[in-house]
Amino acid sequence: MWTFNPTGPAPGGNHQNQGQSARQVISSMENDRVRFEVIQYDRLSGGPHLSIAEHLYYAHQLGARLKQVRMILNHGAVQIEAGALQFLRGNIQMESKIGGVSGLFKKMVSSKVTGEEMFKPVYQGTGELYLEPSFSNYLLVELQNEEMVCDDGMFFACDSGVQVGVYRNKGLSAVLGGEGMFQIRLAGNGICVLESPVPMEEIQVVYLQNDTLQVDGNFALLRKGNIEFTVERSSKSLVGSLTGGEGLLQTFRGTGEVWLAPTEPLYQAIQFNIAANLSKAFGNNK
Q1: Structural domain total, the chain
Q2: Domain that holds residue 250
Q3: Rounded to an integer, what distance in angstroms lies between the CA atom of residue 256 and that of residue 224?
Q4: Structure confidence by residue, pLDDT tens digits, 259-282
Q5: Which residue has the higher pLDDT, 254 or 43?
């Protein structure tokens, strides 16, 4: 029988001599109902083929680490991204909050428009859930009766105190600025798990107090508080904007936080170059 432990049993159970030291909790956040943990696998040694071991070796040398989100429930409830669950144990039930025919229709329309999964299942009870592991980066963010708008695809999980919805950016300039017409809106009082393109140590949090922040590029991950988002030309005249080299700037005005990932464009450029080189190589082999 599974029993609740406020600090949570060590990942992997009681098998202390079976790779226990290979995993560690690198970040955690909790309230009286749910504890969220990000577990990191420091070394992967499995795989039946040497080619797998070779890839794992180079991944480890480059600093890539497999991570997994674990949630410990004490008569609590969490909502997760569809398809993210790997396994669970304990007295936990899943429910789908559709909201009748009208609720189903709204979810279908929202899913079609935003590209997000239509249903995000809710699990409640006492026990623990493990989500699918990956080499992504996971952020634990707490909302205190506030709203947060984040990039499409960042939502991974949250507790029952957070409402998951869609935020519609104003005007076509948002599309031209790279954010798209719709983003994910998280509001309420609780803990969220976000999947980030960069680790937390590479994120710069800019605090605004009735101030303005302008960003040349698409590396603003999220915003919290009373922040208005628009996309504006870098100059009052179109000619001045074009000759200045920046063009359109993502503009944030108000009081709150904007989380930036200045290193993300570099990773995107590297990924693009790798894809282009692979395409060129395959093209030459024809």
Answers
A1: 1
A2: 199-286
A3: 5
A4: 999 999 888 888 777 766 666 666
A5: 254
